[in-house]
Design brief:
Helix 7 packs across helix 9 and helix 8 (169-176) packs across helix 9 (180-194). The chain has 212 residues and is of the alpha/beta class. It is built from ten helices and five strands, in the order βαβαβαβαβαααααα. It is globular and about 50 Å long.
Length: 212
């Protein structure tokens, strides 16, 4: 049985081929595989990818700068950035632009499926390296404060507080005695209210980390 659909933008032919082979073995649907952002943006596809793996450094474009354009073309895609750079500012830029996770070079090809699984269950994937760097820069504390919540319903505020604490969708569902799908529905509503595309972006908005 075929799993989720995936797009690949990676200009290293060897790495791109390795990713393709792994996804094929694991029965994922390949929507496209290319080394060019521009090729993707100018091409019409019958199917939209659920996940989009994008290298940070591409010959024709910065993978991080391209996220917003790619998300306009594929509104519901989860973008995963391949990078060898662990700088906190790069991580923040990628997350603020709409990235859902990272693959740090060098990485095991089998790690890709873990990233997919975490994004599907929790809305995002942060490698321990990313989490450590962000915590160090932002100095996040447990009671960071629930800000900018005037747009939210009572139920959404409860869910938002647990998101800020770092709870997963499944954990929140268990705590508030609702289904995973109900929690996901409320979080999707929050995405619309705050004009964001990922859980991490939403948390930034609620905590005013984005400076907006």
């Amino acid at each position: 049985m075929l799993k989720a659909s995936v797009g690949i933008i990676e200009d290293n032919d060897v790495l791109r081929s390795s990713i393709e082979d792994y996804l094929s073995i694991k029965n994922y649907t390949k929507v496209f595989s290319t080394g060019s952002v521009n090729d993707v943006l100018k091409t019409t596809y019958k199917q939209q990818p659920d996940y989009l793996i994008v290298d940070e450094h591409l010959e024709d474009e910065s993978g991080i700068k391209a996220i917003s354009s790619l998300k306009k073309k594929f509104p519901y895609v989860h973008v995963i950035i391949i990078t060898g750079d662990e700088k906190p500012q790069l991580i923040m830029n990628a997350l603020e632009n709409g990235a859902s996770g990272f693959l740090y070079k060098p990485f095991s090809i089998s790690q890709i499926e873990k990233v997919f699984d975490d994004i599907r269950e929790n809305g995002s994937y942060l490698h321990p390296v990313s989490a450590t760097k962000l915590i160090g820069q932002l100095k996040i504390v447990k009671d960071a404060g629930v800000k900018k919540m005037e747009k939210l319903s009572k139920k959404e505020k409860v869910i938002a507080e647990y998101l800020i604490e770092g709870k997963s969708y499944k954990e929140i569902a268990a705590i508030i005695n609702k289904s995973f799908h109900a929690v996901n529905y409320h979080i999707r509503n929050m995405y619309v209210k705050y004009n964001v595309n990922s859980k991490v972006e939403l948390i930034y908005k609620l905590n005013d980390f984005s400076g907006q």
